[in-house]
Amino acid sequence: MMNLTFLGTNGWFDTKTGVTPCILIDCDSAYIVLDAGNGLYKLDRYIKDTKKPIYLFISHVHLDHVFGLHILNKFQFSQKMTILASRENSASLRTLLTEPFTVSPDKLRTRTELHVFDDKNIALPFSVIGMTLAHSSPNTGFRFELEGKTIVYTGDTGVCENTAILAKNADILIHECSFESGHAKSAWGHVAPEDAARVAKESHVGRLLLTHFDARIYTTLDMRYEAQKEAQKIFPNSQIMVDDQTIRLL
Protein backbone atom coordinates (compact mmCIF):
# COMPACT_ATOMS: atom_id res chain seq x y z
CA MET A 1 0.00 0.00 0.00
CA MET A 2 1.16 3.52 -0.80
CA ASN A 3 -0.09 6.73 0.81
CA LEU A 4 -0.21 10.22 -0.71
CA THR A 5 -0.69 12.87 2.00
CA PHE A 6 -1.31 16.49 1.05
CA LEU A 7 0.42 18.53 3.74
CA GLY A 8 -0.26 21.86 2.00
CA THR A 9 -2.68 22.65 -0.82
CA ASN A 10 -2.74 26.45 -1.08
CA GLY A 11 -0.92 28.40 -3.73
CA TRP A 12 0.89 31.66 -2.97
CA PHE A 13 0.22 32.10 0.76
CA ASP A 14 -1.29 30.47 3.85
CA THR A 15 -4.93 31.11 4.85
CA LYS A 16 -7.67 29.32 6.76
CA THR A 17 -8.12 27.08 3.69
CA GLY A 18 -4.60 25.67 3.95
CA VAL A 19 -0.87 26.23 3.78
CA THR A 20 1.48 26.30 0.83
CA PRO A 21 2.38 23.23 -1.25
CA CYS A 22 3.88 20.05 0.10
CA ILE A 23 2.94 16.44 -0.63
CA LEU A 24 4.31 13.27 0.95
CA ILE A 25 4.37 9.94 -0.90
CA ASP A 26 4.98 7.05 1.49
CA CYS A 27 5.95 3.96 -0.50
CA ASP A 28 7.87 0.80 0.37
CA SER A 29 11.26 2.03 -0.82
CA ALA A 30 11.26 5.67 0.29
CA TYR A 31 9.54 8.78 1.50
CA ILE A 32 9.13 11.15 -1.45
CA VAL A 33 8.31 14.78 -0.70
CA LEU A 34 7.00 17.05 -3.46
CA ASP A 35 7.89 20.71 -2.90
CA ALA A 36 8.72 22.53 0.31
CA GLY A 37 5.96 24.99 1.02
CA ASN A 38 4.92 25.63 4.61
CA GLY A 39 3.20 22.24 4.74
CA LEU A 40 6.69 20.80 5.19
CA TYR A 41 6.52 21.51 8.93
CA LYS A 42 4.14 18.52 9.31
CA LEU A 43 6.62 16.03 7.88
CA ASP A 44 7.64 14.49 11.20
CA ARG A 45 4.01 13.56 11.89
CA TYR A 46 4.18 11.02 9.09
CA ILE A 47 7.80 9.90 8.76
CA LYS A 48 8.16 7.08 11.27
CA ASP A 49 10.24 4.43 9.47
CA THR A 50 13.84 5.44 10.18
CA LYS A 51 15.21 3.04 7.55
CA LYS A 52 13.53 4.56 4.50
CA PRO A 53 15.45 7.39 2.80
CA ILE A 54 13.80 10.76 2.25
CA TYR A 55 13.85 12.46 -1.16
CA LEU A 56 12.58 16.04 -1.47
CA PHE A 57 11.86 17.10 -5.07
CA ILE A 58 11.62 20.84 -5.77
CA SER A 59 9.59 21.77 -8.86
CA HIS A 60 10.76 25.41 -8.89
CA VAL A 61 11.94 28.14 -6.57
CA HIS A 62 8.99 30.51 -6.30
CA LEU A 63 8.81 31.18 -2.59
CA ASP A 64 5.51 29.44 -1.94
CA HIS A 65 7.23 26.20 -3.01
CA VAL A 66 10.37 26.68 -0.91
CA PHE A 67 9.19 28.67 2.15
CA GLY A 68 9.43 25.51 4.20
CA LEU A 69 13.16 25.01 3.72
CA HIS A 70 13.81 27.18 6.76
CA ILE A 71 11.86 24.57 8.78
CA LEU A 72 14.37 21.79 8.02
CA ASN A 73 16.25 22.41 11.26
CA LYS A 74 13.11 21.36 13.14
CA PHE A 75 13.70 17.76 12.12
CA GLN A 76 16.10 15.15 13.42
CA PHE A 77 15.55 12.18 11.17
CA SER A 78 17.89 9.22 11.46
CA GLN A 79 18.00 8.65 7.71
CA LYS A 80 19.46 10.95 5.08
CA MET A 81 17.38 13.54 3.24
CA THR A 82 18.29 14.21 -0.37
CA ILE A 83 16.98 17.41 -1.97
CA LEU A 84 16.66 17.21 -5.75
CA ALA A 85 16.00 19.96 -8.27
CA SER A 86 16.69 20.80 -11.90
CA ARG A 87 20.07 22.14 -12.88
CA GLU A 88 18.46 25.55 -13.54
CA ASN A 89 17.12 25.75 -9.98
CA SER A 90 19.98 24.17 -8.05
CA ALA A 91 22.04 27.36 -7.81
CA SER A 92 19.12 29.32 -6.35
CA LEU A 93 18.43 26.54 -3.87
CA ARG A 94 22.04 26.51 -2.73
CA THR A 95 21.73 30.23 -2.05
CA LEU A 96 18.51 29.78 -0.09
CA LEU A 97 20.00 26.94 1.91
CA THR A 98 22.69 29.13 3.47
CA GLU A 99 22.92 31.71 6.20
CA PRO A 100 21.47 34.26 6.73
CA PHE A 101 18.37 32.77 5.08
CA THR A 102 18.36 29.51 7.02
CA VAL A 103 20.62 26.88 8.56
CA SER A 104 22.96 25.43 5.94
CA PRO A 105 22.68 21.69 5.14
CA ASP A 106 25.98 20.83 6.82
CA LYS A 107 24.61 22.18 10.12
CA LEU A 108 21.20 20.53 10.04
CA ARG A 109 20.42 17.77 12.53
CA THR A 110 19.31 15.54 9.66
CA ARG A 111 22.06 14.57 7.22
CA THR A 112 21.05 16.52 4.11
CA GLU A 113 22.44 16.75 0.59
CA LEU A 114 21.39 18.78 -2.46
CA HIS A 115 21.71 17.25 -5.94
CA VAL A 116 20.59 17.83 -9.52
CA PHE A 117 17.80 15.28 -9.89
CA ASP A 118 19.00 13.77 -13.17
CA ASP A 119 22.63 13.42 -12.10
CA LYS A 120 23.66 9.94 -13.26
CA ASN A 121 25.72 9.52 -10.10
CA ILE A 122 22.59 9.63 -7.93
CA ALA A 123 21.16 6.17 -7.36
CA LEU A 124 17.43 6.32 -6.59
CA PRO A 125 15.36 3.33 -5.43
CA PHE A 126 12.63 4.23 -7.94
CA SER A 127 12.29 5.55 -11.48
CA VAL A 128 11.68 9.27 -12.08
CA ILE A 129 11.83 11.52 -15.11
CA GLY A 130 11.35 15.28 -15.22
CA MET A 131 10.37 17.73 -17.91
CA THR A 132 10.19 21.52 -18.06
CA LEU A 133 6.61 22.81 -17.96
CA ALA A 134 5.04 26.17 -18.88
CA HIS A 135 5.63 28.64 -16.06
CA SER A 136 7.11 32.07 -15.51
CA SER A 137 10.30 30.58 -14.10
CA PRO A 138 11.91 27.17 -14.75
CA ASN A 139 9.48 24.58 -13.38
CA THR A 140 9.95 20.83 -13.56
CA GLY A 141 7.13 18.31 -13.59
CA PHE A 142 7.95 14.80 -12.41
CA ARG A 143 6.77 11.32 -13.37
CA PHE A 144 7.41 8.58 -10.79
CA GLU A 145 7.12 4.82 -11.27
CA LEU A 146 6.42 3.38 -7.80
CA GLU A 147 5.23 -0.10 -6.85
CA GLY A 148 3.54 -0.64 -10.19
CA LYS A 149 1.87 2.77 -10.12
CA THR A 150 2.66 5.91 -12.10
CA ILE A 151 2.29 9.22 -10.27
CA VAL A 152 2.77 12.57 -12.02
CA TYR A 153 3.24 15.92 -10.28
CA THR A 154 3.16 19.21 -12.16
CA GLY A 155 4.26 21.85 -9.67
CA ASP A 156 3.02 25.05 -11.34
CA THR A 157 2.15 25.04 -15.03
CA GLY A 158 0.00 26.37 -17.79
CA VAL A 159 -1.33 24.03 -20.44
CA CYS A 160 1.60 22.60 -22.41
CA GLU A 161 2.64 19.56 -24.42
CA ASN A 162 5.13 18.31 -21.84
CA THR A 163 2.41 17.94 -19.21
CA ALA A 164 0.52 15.62 -21.54
CA ILE A 165 3.69 13.64 -22.25
CA LEU A 166 4.42 13.18 -18.54
CA ALA A 167 0.81 12.31 -17.74
CA LYS A 168 0.20 9.75 -20.50
CA ASN A 169 -1.54 6.69 -19.01
CA ALA A 170 -0.56 7.68 -15.46
CA ASP A 171 -2.52 6.23 -12.56
CA ILE A 172 -2.48 9.55 -10.69
CA LEU A 173 -2.06 13.07 -12.04
CA ILE A 174 -1.49 15.68 -9.32
CA HIS A 175 -2.17 18.93 -11.11
CA GLU A 176 -2.19 22.53 -10.02
CA CYS A 177 -5.51 24.44 -10.10
CA SER A 178 -4.63 28.04 -9.37
CA PHE A 179 -7.46 29.67 -11.31
CA GLU A 180 -11.22 29.33 -10.98
CA SER A 181 -13.35 28.08 -13.84
CA GLY A 182 -13.49 30.43 -16.79
CA HIS A 183 -10.43 32.41 -15.76
CA ALA A 184 -8.61 34.01 -18.67
CA LYS A 185 -5.35 32.39 -19.72
CA SER A 186 -2.23 33.94 -18.25
CA ALA A 187 1.37 34.07 -19.46
CA TRP A 188 2.37 33.45 -15.84
CA GLY A 189 1.56 29.76 -16.32
CA HIS A 190 -1.40 28.45 -14.31
CA VAL A 191 -4.65 26.64 -15.11
CA ALA A 192 -8.35 26.48 -14.27
CA PRO A 193 -10.06 23.18 -13.31
CA GLU A 194 -11.38 22.49 -16.82
CA ASP A 195 -7.85 22.87 -18.24
CA ALA A 196 -6.45 20.24 -15.88
CA ALA A 197 -9.44 17.99 -16.57
CA ARG A 198 -8.83 18.13 -20.33
CA VAL A 199 -5.19 17.14 -19.79
CA ALA A 200 -6.33 14.20 -17.65
CA LYS A 201 -8.90 13.08 -20.22
CA GLU A 202 -6.63 13.42 -23.23
CA SER A 203 -3.73 11.72 -21.43
CA HIS A 204 -5.91 8.79 -20.28
CA VAL A 205 -4.95 9.07 -16.64
CA GLY A 206 -6.71 7.06 -13.98
CA ARG A 207 -7.37 9.81 -11.47
CA LEU A 208 -6.92 13.60 -11.31
CA LEU A 209 -6.07 15.21 -7.96
CA LEU A 210 -6.30 19.01 -7.96
CA THR A 211 -4.14 21.11 -5.64
CA HIS A 212 -2.30 24.47 -5.42
CA PHE A 213 -5.41 26.64 -5.22
CA ASP A 214 -4.47 30.33 -5.46
CA ALA A 215 -5.26 31.64 -1.97
CA ARG A 216 -6.27 35.05 -3.32
CA ILE A 217 -8.90 33.48 -5.60
CA TYR A 218 -10.05 30.42 -3.62
CA THR A 219 -10.99 32.03 -0.32
CA THR A 220 -13.20 29.15 0.86
CA LEU A 221 -13.16 25.38 0.55
CA ASP A 222 -16.62 25.56 -0.99
CA MET A 223 -15.04 27.32 -3.95
CA ARG A 224 -12.75 24.33 -4.38
CA TYR A 225 -15.75 21.99 -4.51
CA GLU A 226 -17.23 24.16 -7.25
CA ALA A 227 -13.97 23.70 -9.13
CA GLN A 228 -14.28 19.95 -8.62
CA LYS A 229 -17.75 19.99 -10.22
CA GLU A 230 -16.39 21.85 -13.24
CA ALA A 231 -13.52 19.40 -13.64
CA GLN A 232 -15.84 16.40 -13.30
CA LYS A 233 -17.97 17.62 -16.21
CA ILE A 234 -14.94 16.86 -18.42
CA PHE A 235 -13.13 14.18 -16.43
CA PRO A 236 -15.41 12.46 -13.89
CA ASN A 237 -12.59 10.98 -11.82
CA SER A 238 -11.43 14.42 -10.64
CA GLN A 239 -11.03 15.31 -6.99
CA ILE A 240 -9.95 18.45 -5.14
CA MET A 241 -7.52 18.03 -2.28
CA VAL A 242 -7.48 19.72 1.11
CA ASP A 243 -4.75 19.94 3.74
CA ASP A 244 -3.94 16.69 5.59
CA GLN A 245 -6.00 14.53 3.24
CA THR A 246 -4.54 11.11 2.44
CA ILE A 247 -5.10 9.05 -0.71
CA ARG A 248 -4.36 5.34 -0.27
CA LEU A 249 -3.26 3.34 -3.31
CA LEU A 250 -3.52 -0.43 -3.07
Distance between the termini: 5 Å
Name the CATH class. Alpha Beta
Biggest sheet details: 7 strands, mixed
- Fraction in beta strands: 25-35%
Radius of gyration: 17 Å
Sheet with most strands: strand arrangement: 7-6-5-4-3-1-15
Order of helices and strands: EEEEHEEHEEEEHEHEEHEE
> How many separate structural domains?
1
Provide the CATH superfamily: Ribonuclease Z/Hydroxyacylglutathione hydrolase-like
Low-confidence stretches: none
Q: Fraction of residues in helices? A: 10-25%
Provide mean pLDDT, rounded: 97
Tally of strands:
15
CATH architecture assignment name: 4-Layer Sandwich
Molecular shape = globular
- Count of helical stretches: 5
The fold-level CATH name is Metallo-beta-lactamase, Chain A
Overall structural class, as computed from helix and strand content, comes to alpha/beta
Tell me what you see in this structure.
With 250 residues, the chain is α/β, with parallel strands linked by helices. The chain contains five helices and 15 strands. It has helices at residues 43-46, 87-96, 161-167, 193-203, 221-234; strands at 2-8, 10-11, 22-26, 31-34, 54-57, 81-85, 112-116, 127-133, 139-146, 149-153, 172-176, 207-211, 213-214, 238-240, 245-249. α3 crosses α4 (193-203). It is globular and about 50 Å long.
